[in-house]
Design brief:
four-stranded antiparallel beta sheet, about 0% helix, 11 strands, seven-stranded mixed beta sheet, mainly beta, about 50% strand, single chain
Length: about 130
């Protein structure tokens, strides 16, 4: 099992920045990739970004490309999401996820991940 705990959410104004953190514990050696998803009220959970521990490959949704940056510190078993130039449409609950790599699903799909955090609220006011 892998436990994930997100932190860093909050209420900001449009144009501001936030950094989310996701700390992993447990069987972290089994983790192949980490991702961030978000879910706004009344909408489906959507992919934001992902990173693979081996090689550090990163993937971004078009809606956040150029504004958000994912990074990871494998020694601390922590992944970060730096969010700049935030927009009201970025408002959502942000979830961290960990995948073991055993799935054939794309990292852009929730089914690629085995473990999920509880989520952290990000609210961007206009």
């Amino acid at each position: 099992q892998v436990q994930l705990v997100e932190s860093g959410g909050g209420l900001v104004q449009a144009g501001d920045s936030l950094r989310l953190s996701c700390a992993a514990s447990g069987r972290t050696f089994s983790t192949y990739a980490m991702g961030w998803f978000r879910q706004a009220p009344g909408k489906e959970r959507e992919f934001v970004t992902a990173i693979t521990w081996s090689g550090g490959s990163t993937y971004y949704a078009d809606s956040v490309k150029g504004r958000f940056t994912i990074s990871g510190d494998i020694a601390k078993n922590t992944v970060y999401l730096q969010m700049n130039s935030l927009k009201p449409e970025d408002t959502a609950v942000y979830y961290c996820a960990a995948g073991s790599g055993s799935s054939t699903w794309s990292l852009r799909r929730p089914r690629a991940y085995d473990y999920w955090g509880q989520g952290t609220q990000v609210t961007v006011s206009s």
